[in-house]
Automatic annotation (TrEMBL):
UniProt domain Thiamine pyrophosphate enzyme TPP-binding: residue ranges: 379-525
Family, similarity comment: Belongs to the TPP enzyme family.
SUPFAM superfamilies the record matches: DHS-like NAD/FAD-binding domain, Thiamin diphosphate-binding fold (THDP-binding)
Xref: InterPro entries: DHS-like_NAD/FAD-binding_dom (IPR029035), THDP-binding (IPR029061), Thiamin_PyroP_enz_cen_dom (IPR012000), Thiamin_PyroP_enz_TPP-bd_dom (IPR012001), TPP-bd_CS (IPR000399), TPP_enz (IPR045229), TPP_enzyme_TPP-bd (IPR011766)
Residue span, Thiamine pyrophosphate enzyme N-terminal TPP-binding domain: 1-117
Keyword hit for 4Fe-4S: no
The protein's name: Acetolactate synthase large subunit
Keywords carried by this UniProt record: Thiamine pyrophosphate
PANTHER family linked to this entry: ACETOLACTATE SYNTHASE (PTHR18968:SF129), THIAMINE PYROPHOSPHATE ENZYMES (PTHR18968)
Gene Ontology CC entries for this record: acetolactate synthase complex
Signal peptide start-end: none
Length: 547
């Protein structure tokens, strides 16, 4: 066989079922090898979307998703989605083509140093120069991509190497157990927790990557300690739980921070500083932090934990839970007063129906129409704060958002990946009009794949989050508004179904309608962000933490 065929056999051995991308002439041998394999190749309409899909498949399955591009401009189009996978802790393999490296075919036409370009945004980047090395290279790429912290890896396959005869067989994929925390470290954590008066558990993205839901739920229920989450930690423990206080959608000064600041110990499970911080540490704090993660803390000015327990998260929590005793003198009274206040406050701001819809109303409607296991994917925009704050997430990885790179354009591709992996679940992509148009061409891909998918476009004719920031800084309203296409006509032009929300109640009506139908459905919803400044800035500045 040739090197391209051997590479594909190695990908099959790793459990790869799909490859997404936009091929070029340098990939044709690889494309032919995929055609004769068990792997399904899906042409996307932009390389960035292929990368977002691959990253999300890695996020949902734990097996690196795979995407493909040609050299030069194809490879540069993968950069954003490689950074998305890398910062988001999503295992993914990015394969790019290259001109022949053993002869000159067209001078330096389209050639850039792709391997070096990917170096800062991947865990491993390598050019394949010898087909005989492919089994080892692929096995190492997948091992590294899955190793904590998961992320992006990149392989470049030059055109002439792809054609060369290669012998060899895929390397066996041996399962590796993750290291467990040292006993003294566990015991010190137990001592700190038992000594504390008002401990809190924080659940971050690292706890969401691995299946830690059961052991964390057991720990929280055994100890009675309340918990809150980061944006990317939502759903690890059901937010129906009586001990759930809320999500730190902002880094400081939200109502949840009244409880966080009242705590004297944060048991920080699975968070690291790549995700936007859920709270800010200060040297004058009396509160301590225990860092529980697969890897040591990255210390900076706002995060410097007093103790670290490094090892497999689930094993760590199980060990601590086995040793700890529920303390009768822990005082959680303030936390539950804040919980009661927050629940009443959130309900009060979603009661009033109006048109255009407020973001709080939209969150409420989506939650009412989705089952526990159904999946919502978010692009990046102002609405993400409201979903993080208000959308009660009941199971792991059922609210997919990015709070690490926080890239626009990922909402629709992520939803496509979720639907491919879980065809039996309802999947909704929530996109702003700015983010949606960055990858709207993938409507054609979704329609071609016959996905049953719903996309909600929140139209405010502006880059709403930056506009909000502009206002909070006291700056002029400038340069952030734009026009939009007819989204309903756009959807129909791609073979999808389009709906225009024109009055209060239409969103609820259309959601019920599309869930009973096959195909791709786009619902355009005008959104009113006018309360954001009052609720998220003025009100929070004036709030008091005295209850």
């Amino acid at each position: 066989m040739n090197s391209a065929q051997l590479l594909v056999k190695c990908l099959e051995s790793e459990g790869v079922k799909y490859i997404f991308g936009v091929p070029g002439e340098e990939n044709l041998q690889l494309l032919q090898a995929i055609k004769n394999s068990s792997i399904k190749f899906v042409v996307t309409r932009h390389e960035q979307a292929a990368g977002f899909i691959a990253a999300t498949i890695g996020r949902l399955t734990g097996i690196p998703g795979v995407c493909l591009s040609t050299l030069g401009p194809g490879a540069t189009n993968l950069v954003t989605s490689a950074a998305y996978a890398q910062l988001g802790g999503m295992p993914a393999l990015f394969i790019t083509g290259q001109k022949p490296i053993k002869k000159s075919k067209q001078g330096n036409f389209q050639i850039i140093n792709t391997v070096e370009m990917f170096r800062p945004i991947t865990k491993l980047t390598k050019q394949i120069i010898n087909g005989e090395m492919i089994p080892m290279i692929v096995r190492e790429a997948f091992r590294v991509a899955k190793l904590e912290r998961p992320g992006a890896v990149h392989l470049e396959l030059p055109e002439d190497v792809a054609e060369e005869i290669a012998t060899g067989v895929p390397m066996i994929n041996h399962h590796t157990r993750r290291p467990v925390a040292e006993e003294k470290s566990i015991k010190k954590a137990v001592e700190m927790i038992e000594k504390a008066e008002r401990p809190l558990v924080l659940i971050g993205a690292g706890a969401n990557r691995k299946r830690t839901s059961r052991v964390l739920t057991d720990f929280i229920e055994k100890t009675g300690i309340p918990f809150f989450t980061t944006q990317m930690g939502k759903g690890v423990v059901t937010e129906k739980h009586l001990q759930y206080l809320g999500t730190a959608a902002l880094s400081e000064n939200d109502y949840i921070h009244c409880a966080i600041n009242k705590s004297d110990l944060i048991i920080n499970v699975g968070h690291d500083t790549i995700e936007k911080p859920p709270f800010i540490m200060d040297e004058s704090d009396r509160r301590e932090v225990i860092h529980i993660n697969f890897f040591p803390a990255i210390v900076d000015q706002i995060y410097f934990p007093q103790h670290e327990v490094v090892g497999d998260i689930a094993n760590t929590i199980r060990q601590i839970g086995n040793l700890i005793s529920k303390k009768s003198d822990w005082d959680f009274s303030y936390f539950y007063k804040m919980q009661k206040y927050l629940n009443a406050h959130f309900q009060s701001i979603t009661k009033r129906e109006r048109f255009p819809y407020s973001p709080q109303q939209i969150v409420k409607v989506i939650r009412q129409n989705m089952a526990e296991e159904d999946i919502v994917t978010l692009d990046n925009g102002m609405y993400k704060i409201w979903f993080a704050r208000n959308y009660h997430t009941l199971k792991q990885n059922t609210l997919l958002l990015d709070n690490a790179l926080a890239s626009m354009g990922a909402g629709l591709p992520s939803a496509m990946a979720a639907k491919i992996i879980f065809p039996e679940k309802k999947v909704i992509a929530i996109c702003g009009d700015g983010g949606f148009l960055m990858n709207s061409q993938e409507l054609e891909t979704a329609n071609r794949l016959k996905l049953d998918l719903t996309i909600i476009i929140l139209r405010d004719n502006a880059f709403g989050m930056i506009k909000w920031k502009q206002k909070t800084m006291g700056l002029d309203d400038f340069a952030l508004s734009f026009g939009n296409p007819d989204f309903v006509a756009l959807a129909k032009s791609y073979g999808a179904n389009g709906y225009q929300v024109e009055k209060s109640g239409d969103l609820e009506k259309y959601l019920k309608e599309v869930f009973d139908k096959k195909g791709v459905h786009l619902i355009e919803v005008p959104i009113d962000y006018s309360d954001d400044y009052r609720i998220l800035v003025k009100e929070l500045k004036e709030k008091t933490c005295i209850l």
